[in-house]
Protein 1
Amino acid sequence: MMNTNIDRKTGTISRRAVLKGGALVGTAFALGRVGWASANKQASIPNVRLGNGVMMPVLGFGTFTLKGDVCTESVADAITAGYRLIDTATVYQNEEAVGAGIKKGGIDRKSLFVTSKIWVDDSGYERAKKAFQTTLDQLQLEYLDLYLIHRPHGDVQGSWRAMEELNAAGKIKAIGVSNFDQAQLASLMAGAKTKPVINQLEINPFFQETGELQTVRAAGVQPQAWAPFAEGRNGVFKNPVLEQIGKKHGKTVAQVVLRWHHQRGVIAIPRSSNPEHRRENLAIFDFSLDAEDMGKISALNVHRSQFPEWT
Ligand SMILES: NC(=O)c1ccc[n+]([C@@H]2O[C@H](COP(=O)([O-])OP(=O)(O)OC[C@H]3O[C@@H](n4cnc5c(N)ncnc54)[C@H](OP(=O)(O)O)[C@@H]3O)[C@@H](O)[C@H]2O)c1
């Protein structure tokens, strides 16, 4: 399904064409066919119902750059703090440490939601199947909740066929993509037996991807934000507009940003190696941004990726 309503000011198409990756979206409160905030609480974090009926926490823990013991301890503590969604990827080279953290977290596997991603080197039917098994072995898990194609390079259709089979066999509960633009998403969907339920994209207050959010939702796909804080780039944690909104609500800039993602219907996966930050980032369900706040944050959009080196 092609989107005819793209926000060309975002520069999304040219960026994506070069990157061959990421697209996502979510404009305020319009949740399309995806069942945002549909009841069910897990810890204190609400779930969203994905297009295939699987429930997914609306806030999770990212693990990019976390390695070794720091990674294991961070994941274990995140679980203790209340996170249930843990996001990793083969290319992060930390699946073993994440798996150890999951074990150390010590809660029932069924109450966790674990995501990993297939890297471009492993694209294609046979390689994808092998890569998935390696991921499971590293994580010491029997199944994944979500498996994503990390970037739209290589034999995407072959990878997808393997993922469809693993999904049908119950080894993956939900399958999706990351960094797919609207054309890439449409092309995958056209030949797919099983539709992707997630598109994980760069989204932050400086790169809001409003048009992309609409496209993704129109396709029945749930948007998810990577680098929800833009990894701290562009002075996000010291931004005066975000500070002023935080002061108004008695909240930090990080909490304002995560609440903004939530109110746009976007799943965020902030990463932190700091236990206090991890807890701070969970405390976003006890306040709301009003229309004025949302408008001020909209005005921070510079329509440019904060990660030009990846495009
Ligand atoms: N699909 C993709 O292509 C893709 C690409 C990139 C990332 N991801 C995923 O998305 C996740 C999140 O993105 P990210 O890790 O790149 O960046 P991020 O979550 O936007 O930012 C992480 C940075 O924010 C800081 N931070 C976190 N909470 C804070 C708080 N409350 N106050 C102040 N600073 C805070 C962290 O520092 P401290 O450690 O000091 O708290 C860290 O430096 C990744 O970990 C990964 O799982 C996916």
Note: The radius of gyration is 18 Å.
Protein 2
Amino acid sequence: MSSYSIEQILRGDVPRVGQPQPLAADPHLMPVSLRVNNHVYMLQLEPRVSLLDTLREFLGLTGTKKGCNQGACGACTVLVNGERIKSCLTLAVMHEGHDITTIEGLGQPNQLHPLQAAFIEHDGFQCGYCTPGQICSAVAMLREVEQGDASFVSEDLTATEVNLTDEEMRERMSGNICRCGAYVGIMNAIREVYEQQQKGPRI
Ligand code: FES
Ligand code: FES
């Protein structure tokens, strides 16, 4: 049982009966600040928590999906500093100071990102579970193409421009699996946005 000094009692520094007691600091938690979709969140996390679980369970950003939770399906793809990563394979504490974008940060219902609009236009989904990951991945993939990054199937690794053939696109999107098999619509949606980009400023 706690005991209090006369001074504490006179100052009123003594919890009253029924008053909530402060919880002891949890030694397993560490402070983490994450910048997600242009908001800064101050969190207390166990260092072992993945970025995916942090987004879904602590920030309520459930647009990012958990499929395999082991890096195989791509449902959890988000953008970190503009690059696509699988958020189930990385720890949240590793991303302090990074710019994280999820599907919720790409567009709004009344102002869709061009890829979101194209997925609707081309029936690029059925159940929709893989769709946020597909779209985040496609955003970064088109940027990689614009930068001239080679892929596994690129014939000339020294070329500075990418010819985005169907084979190139399939390879570059191969980390994102669609169990519904909506690949034709997905490809058509991405190609439409790619062709728009070729004509105008980058989105
Ligand atoms: S949930 Fe991350 S790759 Fe499947
Ligand atoms: S739309 Fe169902 S998994 Fe892709």
Note: Residues 114-199 form a domain with the DNA polymerase; domain 1 fold (CATH 1.10.150.120).
